[in-house]
Amino acid sequence: MRIVAGSLGGRTLVVPPKGTRPTSDRVREAIFSRLDHLDVLDGARVLDLYAGSGALGLEAASRGARHVTLVDSARAAVAAARKNVADLGLAPRVRVVAGPAERYTGALADAPHPSGDRLDLVFLDPPYDLSDDGLARVLRDLAAPGVLAPGAVVVVERSARSPEPAWPDGLAPFGRKPYGETVVHYAEPADPTP
């Protein structure tokens, strides 16, 4: 696995020996092509949930994100992500958090966020066996007031056999693209109802 483009393009990444399902280079390239088109990467605050090796968040850092947080609960994934951050010289701009995504987003939803600390881009690439309810809970946390910046983008990668994510109030889907066994969903903060 490698960084596809940006300042670190071509650099290789360590991947955990088992227990993760890395996003293919082709799918990452397609996701980032769309994100480039949406102009959300430069200077972005990025959260990569269920990060595995950190490939999505590290790709964002390579392409101009200001700050990236990688979150995973699997020990091997956290070790791989930390090694990648160190090998690429990205600390402290990229940090790794060991723990469940649900706990991390729950804390985000409960804490006040100054406008400069809100998230511009969130990746969710959970294990395909994560329940629909588990995914919905994390999405509800992200949709809590003050977590996402205006114009933020939420990217969810799921199995083609999984249903559309249960988008909570506060998040509006705006795209869906299948890639073989993978489907990538895009959402943005919904306009508050008057």
TrEMBL record:
Looking up CDD domains in the UniProt record yields: AdoMet_MTases
User: Could you tell me the EC number(s) of this protein?
Assistant: 2.1.1.171
- Answer yes or no on keyword Cell cycle: no
UniProt GO MF annotations: 16S rRNA (guanine(966)-N(2))-methyltransferase activity
Keywords from the UniProt entry: Methyltransferase, Transferase
PANTHER family documented for this protein: METHYLTRANSFERASE
Looking up NCBIfam families in the UniProt record yields: 16S rRNA (guanine(966)-N(2))-methyltransferase RsmD
Name used for this protein in its record: 16S rRNA (Guanine(966)-N(2))-methyltransferase RsmD
Instruction: State the taxonomy lineage.
Output: Bacteria, Bacillati, Actinomycetota, Actinomycetes, Micrococcales
